[in-house]
Amino acid sequence: MKPNDTTLVTEFVLSGLSSDPNLQLPLFLLCLSVYLVTLLGNLMIIVIIRVTPGLQTPMYFFLMNLSFIDMFYSSTITPNIMANILSVNKTISITACATQMFLFIDLASSEAMLLAVMAYDRYAAICKPLYYTTLISKGRCFQLVCSVYTAGFLNSLIHTYFAFILPFCGSNHINHFYCDINPILKLSCKDTFLNEIFLFVVAGSIEVGSFSCILISYAHILLPLFRIGSSRGRSKSLSTCISHFTCVALFYFPVFFMYLRPTSAYAVDQDWVLALFYTVIIPMLNPIIYSLRNQDVKQALAKLRFTSIFILFRVN
Q1: Alpha-carbon distance 113 to 264, whole Å?
Q2: Which residues of the chain carry a pLDDT beneath 70?
Q3: Is residue 25 left, alpha or beta, with left meaning phi > 0 and alpha meaning psi from -120 to 50?
Q4: pLDDT tens-digit series, residues 95-116
Q5: Using one digit for the tens of pLDDT, what is the confidence trace for 20-44?
Q6: Which of 92, 122, 147, 261 has a CA 20 to 30 Å removed from the CA of 305?
Q7: How far apart are CA 151 and CA 129, in angstroms?
Q8: In the Cβ-directed half-sphere of 262, how many Cα atoms lie within 13 Å?
Q9: What does the alpha-carbon distance between residue 152 and residue 194 come to, in Å, rounded to a whole number?
Q10: How far is residue 226's CA from residue 211's CA, in Å, rounded to a whole number?
């Protein structure tokens, strides 16, 4: 279309991962493999926590919610990527695009805040052990998780609403593999300065605020942690903290680089790789990180396998 064409856009076209036909099948199989590992890994974490009496603690309750978010977070993006790889028609309606953006921002925001809640839980457990059951009671756990989901919903609603009340005219080609907010704003034929302000202030407050809470929590954790007399107790506490902080680093650094900057600085080549890692790979890595470094999860998994084998032989 010509630049001065004012025909309103009714659908978008996603560029996908690659236009090379020789790469479509390998990319599809790769995405399918990653998606299945993501679903199975996070489902495994949820099942293990639900059926293991020793894991009925606030830390594992939050971990179960993290796995729940990662399952749906991945399901918002990856199946659409696979469908686009095999499809000749890579269009997506404005309604479907808005829905995908809403779910993506909602779940990503919720995960950011949940990671902060998990850091606070580790702080309370290590630094305030005598008051832990009061600070992180069962009722408080539900309140914190409900607050996380509610704040994520409201944050997503703000950005999605203000993005899709903009008029889109001219090009309808999204140079991305999903409906992300920055490439969507670049397609609007109206000034998006207010949207950028909302993105920087609202989303920035959530991301920077959550990350600051995590840093403050770990700053208070480190000194008492190395005062623990038992090396075994120190090792166990470090294990859960290292697992959590690894997930934090993998999640937050791409977020800061991709979203806390002007839309004019959006670079397709750089952000494409970060977005793929951020939306597809991280939800797969979280359960792997917690499974490999958390002794309680590994022991529960081994016990679950033994029980399953015993039941199988007994039935036969």
Answers
A1: 27
A2: 1-7, 224-240, 259-271, 292-294, 304-316
A3: alpha
A4: 999 999 999 999 999 999 999 9
A5: 788 888 989 999 999 999 999 999 8
A6: 122
A7: 29
A8: 5
A9: 20
A10: 23
